[in-house]
Design brief:
Order of helices and strands: EEHHEE
Low-confidence stretches: none
Number of domains: 1
Strand order of the largest sheet: 1-2
Shape: globular
Largest sheet: 2 strands, antiparallel
Distance between the termini: 28 Å
Number of strands: 4
Structural class: alpha+beta
Mean pLDDT: 77
């Protein structure tokens, strides 16, 4: 799976984030320690959530809905944050 819908990674426990990480690299971050706090940047459960979300984005009906919700001319992206399958937070954010 290429995880085309994903970019960037953020630690759930400290302020570390790297927005240059591409979705294709996500697997290499499973259980990789955060360079600041040492906690896992991406747990196995987080990665399983990423797989489910990627499958959702590959669904043609969902893709059509997202093209209506996210207008590329407005420079918006979806911010997904959570710990595994619990407390998944989805925000529509304007890129800086």
């Amino acid at each position: 799976m290429k995880f085309k819908a994903f970019e960037g990674i953020k630690c759930d426990f400290c302020d570390f984030k790297n927005e240059n990480i591409r979705g294709e690299e996500y697997f290499s971050y499973v259980n990789k320690p955060c360079p600041i706090c040492g906690k896992a940047l991406l747990t196995v459960e987080d990665f399983e959530v990423a797989i489910k979300i990627e499958e959702l984005f590959e669904n043609p009906i969902f893709a059509k809905i997202m093209r209506v919700v996210i207008d590329p001319s407005k420079n918006l992206y979806i911010n997904l944050h959570g710990k595994g399958f619990e407390n998944i937070e989805i925000k529509l954010i304007e890129k800086e």
